[in-house]
């Protein structure tokens, strides 16, 4: 039995038992005093009518007078859940609920899980338009490709609140932050390295876009999907233009990283400095002999969940110097949970209308900087962990300031102002949860 396999089964069993014990992970609690009928007259009828009249005259007041300013929807159709695939909306709900828990605990953001049965992209987008008045932002989750790209692009153009697809933007931002520091550890520069993108799904498609924003030349990148190296002269390239225009664009722009068409997958690893894999759960998806073809001081990100494409020990034995996975029980977890709570904290606090790619890059740079400044970086530490909660206010501040700079914010702030605000909001949530635990109001299983 390989490393990680016993632990994975233990986590599965424990998770099922704990979900059954608690009956879910989140609940709704009032945030205002309710002591009797007078309080109810303020919060509901007749007092609330005055609030409704004000908002009717200026809908943006809903961000000031209701919980909309701090509430987002976590929305999925259940068509590509974790490494499980198309499991349906009901089976997607516990993942959305878990996402809502992380939003609150790590970012102080109130998140509502919403799963639905709209299968067509245009119906999905219309659904988002319909629920927009209830929320300050929308986090899309676990949607099959290429539909996920269309939905994000359409929703960002039509809605006046931030729409973020975490499997794309969140994971890509975390990857970029990890890669910035991994390259510092091995003494290489981003613009000089040869990068293999292994698996051209939601995360790596967005990561490719961020790499271009960072100045990486497309011909320094080799993109590999299940059929081989993406190349302008590959078989069925015309069909790809219709079925997945995003992969088609990558094939045209990278030109196979200079490789001949129909090159075998292992050829992509020759002379590569970095492999970023976000493909199918392993192990054995990436072979050690492929890693051994890479340049000295190689960086390998094997991010498939629940089992990485190659076990970290195998990658290191094959010559990789820095290895990262998506799991918390190995060093160097590259996980979007380091990103999305802080990004939404920042955009909600400035009432942003959208989240741009440059805002995501600002988050990645701040995340990498935090790891370097707090404890330093090394082969087994390229990013902070989720337990280092002070990272979230810093990333929130970087994102908020970038939103103001780019003119997509409804209100202004400075880095210092947002840092203090986000620290207070997130710190208060943690204090409330600790108080409930201390009082026994959050019970512990026997």
From TrEMBL:
**The Malic enzyme N-terminal domain, residue ranges:** 23-156
Instruction: Give UniProt keywords alphabetically.
Output: Oxidoreductase
- Residue ranges of every copy of the Malic enzyme NAD-binding domain listed in the record: 168-404
Q: Name the Gene Ontology molecular function terms of this record.
A: malic enzyme activity; NAD binding; oxidoreductase activity, acting on the CH-OH group of donors, NAD or NADP as acceptor
Q: Which domain of life is it from?
A: Archaea
- Extract the InterPro entries matched here: Aminoacid_DH-like_N_sf, Malate_Decarboxylase, Malic_N_dom, Malic_N_dom_sf, Malic_NAD-bd, Malic_NAD-bd_bact_type, NAD(P)-bd_dom_sf
Q: Which CDD domains match?
A: NAD_bind_2_malic_enz
Annotated protein name in UniProt: Malate dehydrogenase
> What's the source species for this entry?
Acidilobus saccharovorans (strain DSM 16705 / JCM 18335 / VKM B-2471 / 345-15)
